[in-house]
Structures are given as C-alpha cells and as structure tokens.
C-alpha cells in the first residue's frame, strides 16, 4: 500500500492520510483483520509527526473503520459494506445539493452543470493516467 502525502495539498496531512487509508479499506485493498502499520513506523516512513498519524488513526476508529487493540496495533474492522456504501451515497447527495444550489444562484442550468461534471471527470481520468 502506497500512501502519498503532499505538502502542496490544501488538505491537512492527517486528512490526506485518513482519506487514503479509508479508501483502501472501503475498496477492499485492506481487508477485515488486516494490521495497519504502527503509528510510529508510519510516521517515520512518511516523515510526518506521530501526532498527525495518530489523529488520522483516531478518525478511522471514530468512523468504525479500524479497531485498536492495546499492545497489538490497529486492525481493519468488520464492516457492513452496504451501510458504508449508503453513507457514501448520502454524502454525495449532500454535495450535489450544494452544487445545484450554487449553480442555480449563478443562473446555470442542468446542461451546464453536466458539462462541468464531464470536464472534471475527464481531468480525473487524465490525472490517473499520469
């Protein structure tokens, strides 16, 4: 598993780490029972603070994605993937409601919103190929 931290990103480092680990868990790259790297080792490997790494792990635990076992480490939790997917869909819907509201305020219609979405989707595809 490759984790990439960017100092140029507007996202805080703990959030970048959280997002990547969360994505790996939800996608199945990390499976139930898998041991995550220790907080100290991961911080050392990524050259970031132990506190920053711990914050990302704490967020993962708060969201029920991992469990910490004292003296043994942090393990990927058993999850009901249907519930996880449903939560993700709700999040997407909230973001889209915000987009629609902002677009209406600017006088943009559905076709213009879809055009923007197409452009962004194509940019994402280009980024993944590089």
Question: What is the fold's blueprint, element by element?
Answer:
Layout: H1 13-27, H2 39-46, H3 50-62, E1 66-69, E2 73-76, H4 81-105, H5 110-129
Describe, in plain words, how this protein is organized in 3D.
With 130 residues, the protein is mainly alpha-helical. It folds into two domains: 13-76, Orthogonal Bundle (Arc Repressor Mutant, subunit A), CATH 1.10.10.10; 81-129. It has helices spanning 13-27, 39-46, 50-62, 81-105, 110-129, and strands at residues 66-69, 73-76. The protein has a two-stranded antiparallel sheet with strand order 1-2. A hairpin with a 3-residue loop joins strand 1 (66-69) and strand 2. Helix 1 packs across helix 3 (50-62) and helix 2 packs across helix 3. The longest helix is centred in the last third of the chain and has 25 residues, at 81-105.
């Amino acid at each position: 598993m490759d984790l990439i931290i960017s100092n140029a990103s507007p996202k805080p480092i703990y959030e970048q780490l959280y997002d990547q680990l969360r994505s790996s868990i939800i996608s199945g790259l990390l499976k139930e029972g898998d041991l995550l790297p220790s907080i100290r080792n991961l911080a050392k490997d990524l050259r970031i603070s132990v506190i920053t790494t711990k914050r990302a792990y704490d967020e993962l635990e708060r969201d029920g994605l991992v469990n910490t076992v004292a003296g043994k480490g942090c393990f990927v939790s058993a999850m009901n993937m249907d519930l996880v997917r449903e939560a993700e869909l709700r999040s997407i819907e909230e973001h889209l409601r915000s987009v629609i509201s902002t677009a209406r305020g600017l006088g943009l219609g559905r076709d213009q919103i879809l055009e923007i979405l197409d452009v962004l989707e194509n940019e994402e595809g280009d980024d993944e190929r590089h």
